[in-house]
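Re: that chain you flagged

S.,

Sorry for the slow reply, it's been a week of failed gels. I finally had a moment to sit down with the sequence you sent. For the record, here it is as I used it:
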Amino acid sequence: MAEDILLNVTLSQDLLPQGTTNAAVIAQLDLQPADAYRLQHQSVPTDICLLLDSSGSMDEPFARGDSVTKRDGVIAAAKQIIPHLSATDTVSVIFYDSQAHLIAERLPAARFSELSALLDTLRKYSGATNFEAGLKVAQAVLSGGRGSSRRIFFLTDGNQTHGHPEPFIAQLARDGVTVDCLGVGEDFNFADMRQLSAPSNGVTERLASRDQAGQLFERLLVSAQRTIATNVFLNLHFAQGLRDLEVYQVAPETRFYSQIRPGSGGRFTLEIPVQTLRQDRRNIYLLKANVDVPAATQQLPFADVRLDYDLPPAGRTGQRAALAITINCRQQGLPLRNTAVDDLFMEAELDKFYEQFTAVQQQDWRKAVAILDEMIRRAHILDDHAKLQHYQTMRHKLQNDHKLSNDDLNQIGATSTKSTRAQSAAELGRSASSHADLDY
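Prediction finished late last night. Pasting the structure tokens below so you have them in one place:
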């Protein structure tokens, strides 16, 4: 049987000279559907759940100086997905405030014309913000779904006022449901919502404008419709003797994985809940380690990779792909380098620095400034003018005021967790790395 999901690897350094010590090697690991499989399954039946905040604060302006409320802006954005729904999709609508309100349960295509009027009823509700109530009902609704892809668009304008959503987030991930966390308004907490999107490997987005909100709802729908592998788990087993291990996902969203565990035989391991793969994009991971090359070694083991997954469009479960990553070694000569992988890694590290920044910025503004200085340095090396200007502005405010607003923190999070290089490299039909970036 032909392989339907492919594992491809590119090394930042290969052909290392024998006897080299403490060489930093980064392996770029791409997960992608084979062309034959992805072209055969370009769209799948999708169960969408719109889980929308209906609390009283949704009557505030969508953005500073905006005459339209958050409530009306979200209604308009959600309506933009209606023309893009397919005959095999279903849509559920749940509003939540102090309690959850089930507005529509898995509406089929024949009833999509009702959606606009149902979304308008968001204006009738008000109350506090109970994440747990909304997620509990969403889990119950989607547990009966039959779509190949199941997705929750979880939108809020602030922090929860009561409830414990974490158990329901964890159960949704185990059930194979992806939760995308969307925020509107200055009270939205980007860092906290990233914790809720992480178990299912959903995305976290800050909706800065009404136009962006509508475009994002459309993009998320397309992403759900093009899901062709589910229950995807990536297992990494690093070789013995590696040091300074770091692992990042850089597409679809940048994530730093700090939970690498020591395993049997001194080999460190990590399981990543990839959850889903798209028909038109690859997922990209970076595995970094420092290695020593013995004097008479031709092949240096780096990591063993195993991918477990289901293929709902093909009706197959329990599929597996495997790859052994090795580094080629030789007696003399310079290493073969790929600077594109180095650049991806440098940009990915911004997510680690962002997590460090959020952990210390309230307790020690001086340490927070030092972290921003390192982020500024990275943005300068990467020649990313947008990130550079943003980090410099935030540093100036923190240096002067010794604190940042919640909206400032949200902007730093949104800037640091999206890799422009990775998004380009993730598009299928484009090369993951360019030969023009090779150094000999």
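What I noticed first: Residues 46-225 form a domain with the Rossmann fold fold (CATH 3.40.50.410).

Talk soon,
D.
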